[in-house]
Structures are given as C-alpha cells and as structure tokens.
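Changelog note: in this version the structure field was regenerated for every chain. One regenerated record is shown below for reference.
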Amino acid sequence: MKNYKPRCPLCGQSPCQCFVEEDPATAIQSMPNGKGEAIHDQLIRDIQSRKALGTQKYGQPLRAFNGRKAIVDAYQESLDLSVYLRQMITEMQSLQTIEDIVRWFLKNMEYDGLYNEIGMCACLVNDLAPCGEIQGTCQPGYLDDCNCGEHDWHIVGKRDGE
C-alpha cells in the first residue's frame, strides 16, 4: 500500500490538479451531468431559511421601498462573494493528498472527524487515519463523550438532539 497514490475524486489526478494549471477565471468545463438533488430545490429551501432569519432579526421579511439601495447592497454582497470564492480556490490549490482534501472538507463542513462502523474505528480531523489509510466506508461525524470505558471519545454520525 505504500506505493498507492490516492487520486482526487474531482480531477482524477494525484496530487489534485483541479486549479493548478488552469486559470479558474477562464477554465472551460464539460457539460454538467449530475445525479444529485436539484440545486434549485436546495436554493428554495435556503431562501426560505434566510427569509425566516431576516423576519426574526428585523421583524419582517425584506420588502421593496425599505429605504435602502438594493443595487448597493447587491454589489457589496457580490464583492464579498468574490473574496470567499477566491479564498476557496486558493485553499483547494494547496490540497496535495486525499488526506488534505478530506481534512479540508471536514473542517469546512464543521465535522470533528471520521468514523467507520465496519472497522470499528474513528479518528479526529487533526489526526486522520492513524490506522494507515482512509477507507471508503469512513463517514464524517461529530465528537461525542464515551462511556464505554475503552476510549475517551467517539465520533458519531449525528450531534446530540439531531
């Protein structure tokens, strides 16, 4: 297994070449062919959540003629978006191994580590794969107290209350 070089699930290269050779501002991509949930449906849920948050925070949803300049708000938000997107591209360019990619994902999605019910093992995000390699059956999870007497902690699939 020492000669095994994991490949990036996005570009298929080892190490990842997703943004290394191309300028992300001009990169040409293939036609989309996803099979996951429709992004529009996810976006609708996100908008509903933002409306609820705004209503809670301001006492009403965003309305027209509210005394603000929507074009200025939108422009400022788009500048912030550009900064966040460039940050993400820069961070992705630094990922050299599958372990780097998994660690980046876990941290950005606020997971605490991985667990594997089949292999009965777990690892923390800052100490990935002490067993030697990340298995295909490893799942992201959250740190949880342990009462088993064998460990100080466990990684579980859901946080308490979820």
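Spot check on this record: The CA atoms of residues 74 and 80 lie 10 Å apart. The first strand starts at residue 113 and ends at 116.
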